[in-house]
Design a protein that fits this description.
By secondary structure, the protein is an alpha/beta fold. The protein contains 12 helices and 15 strands. Bound molecules: S-adenosylmethionine.
Amino acid sequence: MELALYDPEHGYYGRGPRRIGRAGDFYTAVSVGPLYGRLLAGLAVKKRSEMGAGKDFKVIEQAAHDGQLAEDILEGSDLDYLIVEPNPRYQEVQRQRLERFGDRVSWVPVTDDLPAGPALFVCNELPDAMPVHLVRWDGSEWQELFVTAEASGRLQLSPGPPSASLALPIARLPVNLQPGHILEVNLAAEEWLRHLACARFHGQVVIADYGLDQEEFWAPERAGGTLRRYHQHQMDDRVLEDLGECDLTAHVNFSRLMEVAGAEGLKLQAYEHQGRWLGRLAMPWLASLEGRRQDGATKALLRQFQSLTHPSIMGRSFRVLVLEKNVRTAAA
Ligand SMILES: C[S@@+](CC[C@H](N)C(=O)[O-])C[C@H]1O[C@@H](n2cnc3c(N)ncnc32)[C@H](O)[C@@H]1O
């Protein structure tokens, strides 16, 4: 999965930012339109004032992709922006798109390089794009599913004893599932969150993605796991086909992220469906529209609001985890 997504020559993401939205393979909240960014900008401005911060306050984004969310947040606000971007090709695309904002925008390659200071950290659909391990319950023990090649070159998933790094995660899994039940273990997401917790900034962390609670992964109807591939808005589980041409993704285990967050000293502020969370953020804007005639631009924003919050579109399957991050004092 790591190679299929991030190999610099062949990887779906590694080669450079793909189109997201109607002309791409899938939609994200960002690709729905500028409303999402505007609501996040409102949150950032509120956070800055609550923290009593000034010019030192930054919006930090990771998984900035082609810079669309950054543009939506920067436009119409006076916020400063810091992008965490390891891939130079992405940085180049982002720099071009955001050039007009001058020194309001800066970059670091990894969260370990983030400077100290007050900030709102946001990421949209980041952990779901991290490579996962697959494990399968065989009725008496957990096996890992490895990608192997037949003599013909055809790839397949083959069970074997789990990697050493899975020993602890597997010890936490239930043993009363039906034989054949597959789960994803996203060690990369856990590692990412641990690093984020140790970063030097303080303020709020917002993680928006589609995902489930622990028990939802264990439900019989999810016995096949949640690893999927996306291509031109079609989704299926043939994850070993057309590698590098399709997005590969697995639902985020929010329960596990909350456990890691807690262990790392990040305080839970909210965990809820995107629809509810954005509904609250949008309240002042919606109230300001009452009794006024809506022009075409407002109607377009209201349609975006509907897509982002309606339970049958993005409102329920997407969830938002909000954490409070204090300054970490270095261990002695
Ligand atoms: C599903 S896309 C989401 C893009 C965008 N945030 C949006 O919502 O439209 C996942 C993105 O995560 C990026 N990504 C994966 N690992 C990353 C990392 N360690 N640092 C920064 N971006 C990363 C990929 O390059 C890709 O752009």
